[in-house]
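Hi team, as promised in this morning's meeting, here are the two structures we talked about. I've kept the exact order from the run log so nobody has to guess. The first one is mostly here for context; it's the second one we should focus on when we meet again. Sequence first, then the predicted structure tokens.
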Amino acid sequence: MQHAGNNKTPFGALRIGVAALAVFCLMTAQAKAQQAASAPATVAQGRVAMPPAPPLPHGASAPHAASAPARALPAMPVPIPPQAAPAAPAASAASAASVSEAASAASAAEAASAASAASEAAASEAAAPEVPLPPEAPEPNAAQRSGLAPKGAYAMRQTFAQEVDRRLTVPAADQQAYGRALQHALDENGHGDLANEFVALVDRAENVQALFVYFRAKPGDAWSMIGASPVSTGRPGSYDHFLTPLGVFQHVPANMDFRAEGTLNEFKIRGYGARDMRIYDFGWAEGERGWGKGGVSPMRFQMHATDPEKLEPVLGMRHSKGCVRIPSTLNAFFDHHGILDAQYEARAAEGQSMWVLKPNRQTTSWAGHYLIVIDTARKTRPAWSPGPGKAARQQVPAAANNVD
């Protein structure tokens, strides 16, 4: 019986309480470790884990009020960030070390092993690259909605000749041959009935390196060429250089375009061209690696201008890291007339903010949706598509091989 005013606990009772608490902590730690070891690693279902995209490349910009998404560098494999391992649930076991050091160490080891296995499974799942966006249902352009006569579309030939300074004079026989190749590519990709809109066709063949703008009024008609210009596509042989991917690529706002700042990069080159040039973004594509043992990797596929003084003079030969480089005046022609902007204009008409579209643009009623890349593998250089001269090639800076 305790005396009044004496509320101290006897020493023996205190020792018993401490021992009981230690045993309880040890049992709790072991139960948690066993539960972690038996639980399967959690894997997100239904969607490949997406790594965060790096910021806009150096030399590119978007207005501060725009909602342009951050994007990875063009022609670069998708970055896979390392996954941090979750902490091992061994803290409770440490609290029981004074009672049973050996048992506590064993329980901590079990918990750490379970955490390691879980982290490896999570890292394996995250290693899958970003997948391309699914195709969108193409929105009809103004001519397709109204049945407008195609006279204005064919008149774009004169506009092309007036506004684009780097042009190729393609013989009629080759115009027809490329029209048939265009139709074949569309047939293979389920767009064989495409008509009443402009399309852009690129031949990535080393001996051609050209872009063509085509149009036809109705399915079944032959494709008619509007104009052609020299380009540069992917040059294999160096690290991070891809062959430009083949296929039919839809131009959609989900892969939002952006504009060049026109600043010099670390190699003193304007990789995206002069200020305000538009970068046409076609999203992720499977690109054939031009280095090492080959194979394919995801790359960001774009079409854009290039340095007007240092690199535009060598258009007509393979020189990019996988993108399609085009003349600055062709870039302005595509941009001002909305040659591939059917989907952008449809979203703007719905009230969405298409910040990349200029307010003074004059979008054609026959705006298109697609860029098509083929490879004719021509063995000899046609006279109508000459490569850059020796003087132009000698002016290319050595570091230009590191530019997109």
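And here is the second protein, the one for discussion:
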Amino acid sequence: MARLDAGELAIRLGRKAEAVCRHYLSSGHRAGRYWQVGDVRNTPGRSMFVRLTGPEAGKGAAGKWTDSATGEHGDLLDVIRESCGLADFKDVADEARSFLALPHPEPERGDRDRRPTSVPTGSPEASRRLLAMAKPIGRTLVETYLRGRAITALHETASLRFHPRCYYRADENAPTETWPAMVAAVTDPAGTITGAHRTWLDPDGFSEARLGRAPIETPRRAMGDLLGNAVSFGMGCEVMTAGEGIETVLSVRSVLPTMPAQAALSAAHLSAILFPTTLRRLYIARDNDPAGDGAMATLTERASAVGIETVVLTPRLGDFNEDLRLLGHEALAARLRDQIVSQDIARFMLLAA
């Protein structure tokens, strides 16, 4: 099939505007000639309007939308990108083609003839290839896993991917197995992928016994260049949260949805994260254990030495995902509201005090 450009894909989506909205903006509803919803990320509300009828292109085209609260506007490709948490246009186009039941384009001849060269196992390049083979997390086992851990704020999660058959070996002498996995992109401050983190998942779904992880010896492993780098969520600004685990920082973002966050993947790596040049205040979402104590102390000292204010966030239980799962969203929100700087409450909290 010939490659369709963005304009043609947007037109084809516009012909099915209401079906697109019902699928990707399911929190909204039809209101006359429009679909009404909270925002392009499928938040409940009424400030965003999508045209369901109109010409195929130009002013007033079907599929065009405007958010009266933010001034944002775009087409249905933007809806797919934001509601699914996608970053690359290729992923957006692939998702659009899947929705429209269109075949995927044939690779260019040069792409077919080019054979990939081997790369060292566990290297940054191997990490990039693994991520390229994975897919967005929307409506996959990764989404099921995260929701099982009470994490429902899945906006700005393009750094997370799903691989249905990710290789696993217990040790170098063990046979290779395949398990579904959540694959996270580890990036440096410039956004370059330097590594990947894998969480192998239980294909039978979520259970409290394993918390959704596969029944294997080490269901979490990282590869690539990790020191100083992290899994990032949200666009950088002068305020940021940093924590150890992916689930920990996503739990904090359930209450502080617009605050950028980084998961360093371990206590040792948390103490060594590289600071963005714009950073002025760092919230440290610590784990409640001795390793968390050490990471907090080292990171606080490093940040203070370069003029960055640090604020320590301490969970009531072992970590913030335990707080979210076992105590609930309201209890976690109250806990964090008591610890963050007052001016950041209205700016970042889901429910302002």
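Starting points for discussion:
The two ends are 54 Å apart (CA to CA).
The mean pLDDT is 90.
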